[in-house]
């Protein structure tokens, strides 16, 4: 019987087949909830350049800082989760001071105005925080926040808020960390509030959460010293306040940052990341999927315009994400 030769003659064909397969397909897909396309590929290309030693885009591990907005970027923001939490806080405050029930925005919050909660910007939310959190210690605030997360459900989707983190963004966080990036939250929400769930939800430890804060003071507490929040804002980590907060907490400019379209709150952070001696990667989430989540835009499209001018990568939730939430069918 004639034997078929296998060996060197077959190598050109085998090599051609190998080269025709994208390198990404040779390994497990690091972003399985992302549709294949230019957005997904641009993320992978950036990470590959950043981690290829001696390459032109190499970034030393100590400089691989990635910052993420929270509401609307890592999880849903209709309504803003801390706004829902503040509703419970306002109810408790009114029990102590009934006059608050006649003042705005307390009155609208008490009436369960979800539209108002959804439209409130970070400074308005933080003003409510100042009115409801003054005098409390971080431990007291943490206990209240944990109690909220144990029972609260999204008014439309009917599941705990912590189940509404975006599956594609959870994968992105893990992918970056697997490649030596530090992942930080830089959000306009309250630092204390986000720290309660950041590690379990995103794998981001509490010390890597930057948010808006009240001023605080040291209280000796009769031999048991504590910190207490005051009814005064210390830092609002929104818009131009985000780069300030990043510098104060990290001391390095991010090389990767992600935000979303809503009120222009992430523009300055994304500009700060993109425009530097070593160009960073700026990612903007566009909420354009009314069927699986929500569809909304800014009135002036400021974030999308800034993305076009700055060369940022824009994510279409409808086109670029295979699924939005970890549990299919939501």
Automatic annotation (TrEMBL):
InterPro entries: HAD-like_sf, HAD_sf. Residues 1-27 form the signal peptide. It comes from Corallococcus coralloides (strain ATCC 25202 / DSM 2259 / NBRC 100086 / M2). It holds the Pfam family HAD. Keywords: Signal. This is Acid phosphatase.
């Amino acid at each position: 019987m004639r034997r078929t030769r296998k060996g060197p003659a077959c190598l050109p064909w085998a090599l051609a087949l190998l080269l025709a397969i994208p390198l990404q397909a040779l390994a497990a897909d690091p972003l399985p909830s992302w549709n294949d396309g230019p957005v997904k590929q641009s993320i992978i290309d950036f990470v590959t350049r950043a981690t290829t030693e001696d390459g032109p885009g190499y970034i030393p591990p100590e400089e691989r800082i990635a910052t993420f907005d929270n509401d609307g970027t890592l999880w849903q923001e209709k309504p803003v989760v801390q706004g829902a939490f503040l509703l419970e806080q306002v109810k408790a405050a009114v029990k102590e001071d009934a006059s608050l029930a006649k003042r705005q925005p307390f009155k609208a919050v008490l009436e369960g105005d979800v539209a108002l909660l959804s439209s409130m910007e970070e400074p308005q939310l933080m003003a409510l925080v100042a009115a409801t959190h003054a005098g409390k210690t971080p431990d007291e605030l943490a206990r209240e926040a944990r109690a909220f997360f144990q029972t609260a459900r999204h008014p439309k989707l009917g599941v705990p808020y912590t189940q509404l983190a975006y599956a594609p963004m959870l994968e992105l966080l893990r992918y970056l960390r697997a490649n030596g990036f530090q992942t930080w939250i830089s959000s306009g929400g309250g630092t204390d509030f986000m720290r309660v769930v950041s590690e379990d939800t995103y794998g981001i430890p509490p010390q890597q959460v930057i948010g808006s804060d009240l001023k605080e003071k040291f209280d000796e507490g009769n031999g048991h010293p504590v910190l207490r929040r005051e009814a005064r804002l210390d830092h609002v980590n929104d818009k131009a306040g985000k780069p300030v907060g990043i510098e104060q907490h990290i001391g390095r400019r991010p090389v990767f940052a992600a935000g979303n379209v809503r009120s222009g709150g992430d523009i300055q952070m994304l500009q700060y990341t993109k425009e530097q001696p070593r160009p960073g990667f700026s990612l903007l989430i566009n909420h354009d999927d009314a069927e699986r989540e929500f569809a909304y835009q800014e009135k002036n499209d400021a974030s999308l315009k800034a993305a076009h001018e700055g060369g940022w990568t824009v994510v279409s939730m409808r086109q670029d994400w295979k699924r939005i939430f970890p549990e299919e069918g939501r």
